[in-house]
Amino acid sequence: MMAVPQWSQADAPSVAVLYPELREPFRGVFLEIVEGIEAGLRSPVKSYALTNDDSALKSQLAQERVEVAITLGRSGLLAARKLADTLPVVVGATFVSPDAENRGLAGITLAPAPDALFDRLRRLAPEIKRVSVVYDPKSKTWEIEQARKAARERGLTLNALPAEDLRSSAALYRTVLDETRGGGGALWLLQDDAAMDERALLPLILTEAWDNNLVVFSSNPDHVRKGALFSLYPDNAGMGRSLAAMARKRLQGGVSGDTDIEPLKDLLFAVNLRTAEHLGLRFDSQDRRQFDLVFPAP
Question: What is the pTM of this model?
Fold first, then answer.
């Protein structure tokens, strides 16, 4: 977790939080993040619900003397790109990478930090030496670059396979499953990835993994519900505190052309106990206290 600086309410910056107006349960997620932001700032923020027409947003923030904006969600990212030339902006609660489209933005992507995923994998299945992943190179190259570094530091081999479309993705997954059948390897499934067909391909992967005792872990907790061994997912309040710290840091630097996107490190742990038992994994009471979300539901 990012260290949260301490400052008094008297010198707390004027922060605006922009998020989409959604129904529950999604609205509750954003409110948890906002609560984390306020806890990190130790001061209230000004909240704005984004609409389809945000043409007056810049002038409204200027009139209210907002010093730094934190935007949440996909629509928040779109707003951030429009604001970045006039106001320090931090992006959260969406998938974002440091590409040309997001130049000048700071933020935390929703993708869990690969080093945290690999650390968890090593604790659960220390015999694993090779991790395979199929990915869309148009959107996931930055995440894969981070994963290569994290794997190398942990003595793991990362077998990263780019897939240009779903047809090539299906063929690559078949190859990986055939190669991994002999043991010693694991399959990592990404979240929000165009290389994954959730309806047709995912069930086949999980069935094959079950039949052959293959370790499958994911960046998507919903995959754990469906049979993957484990996932890491956002700690919303923790993410809010880290966004607050990044906003303070961004404010000190002012409007900048520098891009500063970080992976998500405020994470909770989801595990499928049925899959774990099938793989021969056993957890003691201390292990179980670290589980934040368990499938099947007790």
Answer: 0.92
